[in-house]
RNA sequence: GCCCGGGUGGUGGAAUGGUAUACACGAGGGACUUAAAAUCCCUUGCCGUAAGGCUUGCGGGUUCGACUCCCGCCCCGGGUACCA
């Protein structure tokens, strides 16, 4: 009978489906293993030959583990939301849901035709209501835990796709999908607070069995750097100087927390500062304290009144009582209601919580409200309430300590005095900071009060930068441009000298503080800029100390050394100076990350709607869980206009506020598809659960994923987001593990026959259906595994597939010929061979070296064929072992042959064959004889041969003698069981 | 620029300090056949008639011995982009 792959493959695929062979349940008696593929986006092009590469690897691994008694969860699903379906819909007027359904059906058929052992009962589809309901649930959970927030942000806007792109979807300034130039636009956007987990996302990488390049890419993406935050005061003839009155809080004093530091910093800037010691600070009386302040402090149009905590309340009361306006009122960690997050305080009887806001507003001048992000005492909404009552600007910042009780609080200083904050990793070079640079987007430029004299020139530079797309910036290479701000200068906090401030696009707004101290002698970029614009370059780190001089070089010196020209620090090692100078300059040490919060809003139709409702009265209201899902309406005109398509659906858009019942509107943006894929691996555990995204017991049994396989293109985005969501859900109490994927392996790219990346435009795309039709699924699976190392990129070769097909036919023939004459027989050669093969294949599967495993199967097959050709019979147990070894790779043929041997049990769960190492031991070995490291001869000898005997035998050989003639032996090296090297002359 | 990979026959690749080129494709030759296909066998790194010499991107080094370890360089692929 001929090997008929079509008949056999159809037969066994039907068998597995009918018998639900690969459907699994929790079974506490068995060890679990969760083996997962990255689920595909079901594109209209159908399956690509790259897909089965990873799927085959996980299938081999899953089948291997089942044969070791593991309960293997091996699921498949669809990452079904996304732009291509919507773009196709716009072009062809077919609804995305129709296209997606069709594509999924096609993908499923194609994947099933390869005979993978998936549990199809757990299939998930991110675009289904049953799934995105829980994606919305996830959003709400993040929202209620403060991990989802909205803010106006400059976003990457693709004019062609008419959508916002995440930073990571922009490549070289163009859209990663359509390659149009991306522009900047300001929009209200939803974010997930990934930055809150930056440190954990970095540290936990160490515990993972992932490829090093992937871990590295994530480390670089998170981009941790340690440095200092330094304040550079602004001066200039138009920059005003103020007189400050600083009011401490409940149980505080002028000597407490940041007050001494703040006073000193302000005085350094030439201001006078009064910090009154408020009477009875531990049992404060409103009247007494207000009167004290009014009596002991002077208020005029140059005064800035500052209050911290309860001091802010006093400041408000003082402002209320003034007869003429002051320059400004700054409230830090302030409040206007007597309730606190942590514990009650005894202000009720001694304070009146009534304020004449109108009068305060009239007297207070410029009002700034600063709340602390993680304030333990003051409720979050207090900042907003004060702003609602008084107006002014509200900023939420992270203090050095909760409620601003650190010894230094630079954020407060920055709001009190005109100051530029910079982040630097090299505070040791501060004495060499000869100028400053701020980014074109820096808010300082918009500050009219500073009196920038060349405003026209500066504005021209700013708008020029905005016009320059990212791509143009790249084309201009590293040519530095910039404009000096006239009429305003900064003071180097170490030298006390005034230095110029420049605006230049080599300083980017999105990192650090958007401003830098420029140290041209020790930073290459600053060096180039200083050279171009003739700015002073001062060496402050000398590599060879002590040296008589430390001349400026042709490039920046970035290494370590000893300080010179650095006042009291001269002579100190640069490494040591880092902390010393930070303290001296009144700065604080700070850790900065490159990673930004995850922008998840998309102005698109084909995604999960963000479950938020906007109400005039109640503000932003989350959709109650019971109302989920927020259905994606089907009757929407989704053609792109720049607005979210959902705003054009009145039935979707107009709703009642869940909180007050008034007329309200829905959020019309949808979520980034990466949100859907950041939790799907949890859903597989409980794919049918209607009442929860996943069930606790099931999660505890199956998760985390033990082996995850997919393309390296997801090195940062998907994997980082999934890790973030896992940690967030863990902290909410839903999960008891920190990392979703314990082991990760990346499949290498399959290139076209021309060695280039497969693409429609190149016309080098291979259709897997044709290969399966012609050669069969087993051949396809084996070929993709045999091409080369799993993780390497490798070119497709249709020509070479025939070799795999020949191999399978050869296996088939061995069994055909043996079928009627099988019986036990002795054969030493085959015994060794079969044990060797079991060992090699077993080791290679666990290390993902499938190509050499297949090579071992081929070698074994040759031996079987040879034995048969000699008219000898092959022991049935060897034939069985061989089928078992072959079965993870070519399961259809293996099942068929297994049945042919008269077996009735399920091959899928049959124990994996074992090998006996004693059969692998050889009595004889081939001794290599080298002379001066070159192979000259070899001889079969016994393993028992001693070193001396080896020497004698080797030296006695005629061939050896020929090479040794006329030479002197200097020494001889014998490596037992391997070789002898005779070194001559 | 920086960070990762990688460079071995005509081709895909094997070998992680010990016989470089396993396995497969392709090519050449042979057997079987009326013939072809299929199958089976042999040959196949390069130079050389041969003895022999040379050979893992290039140049050095360590070692009795290096594809493998170290230093310098070249080339190819991927990621990243003035990150202070």
Oligomeric form of this entry? single chain
Q: What's the alpha carbon Rg, rounded to whole Å?
A: 37 Å
Structural class: alpha/beta
Low-confidence stretches: none
The backbone outline, from C-alpha atoms, is globular
Largest sheet: 7 strands, mixed
Instruction: Give the beta-strand count.
Output: 39
Strand content: 15-25%
Instruction: Indicate the mean pLDDT.
Output: 90
Offer a few descriptive terms.
alpha/beta; 39 strands; globular; RNA-binding
Helices and strands in order:
Layout: H1 5-18, E1 32-37, H2 50-66, E2 71-73, E3 77-78, H3 83-92, H4 96-112, E4 124-125, H5 129-144, E5 148-158, E6 163-165, E7 170-171, E8 174-175, E9 183-192, H6 198-203, H7 212-222, E10 224-235, E11 243-247, H8 259-268, E12 272-274, H9 286-296, E13 303-308, H10 310-321, E14 328-332, H11 357-364, E15 366-372, H12 381-390, E16 393-397, H13 410-416, E17 419-424, E18 435-438, H14 455-467, H15 470-475, E19 483-491, E20 498-503, E21 515-518, H16 524-533, E22 541-542, E23 562-563, H17 574-584, E24 588-593, E25 598-599, E26 601-602, E27 612-615, E28 619-622, H18 650-653, E29 654-656, E30 663-666, E31 670-671, H19 673-676, H20 680-683, H21 696-702, E32 705-711, H22 717-731, E33 741-747, E34 750-751, H23 768-775, H24 777-786, E35 794-795, H25 801-818, H26 828-846, H27 850-869, H28 876-886, H29 891-900, E36 924-931, E37 934-942, H30 947-956, H31 958-964, E38 969-975, E39 979-984
Parallel strand pairs: 1-2, 1-32, 3-4, 11-12, 11-13, 13-14, 14-15, 15-16, 18-20, 32-33, 34-35, 36-39
Antiparallel strand pairs: 5-6, 5-9, 7-8, 9-25, 10-17, 10-19, 10-24, 18-21, 19-20, 22-23, 26-31, 27-28, 27-30, 29-30, 36-37, 38-39
Helix pairs in contact: 1-29, 3-4, 9-10, 10-11, 23-24, 24-25, 25-27, 26-27, 26-28, 28-29
The structure holds one RNA strand of 84 nucleotides.
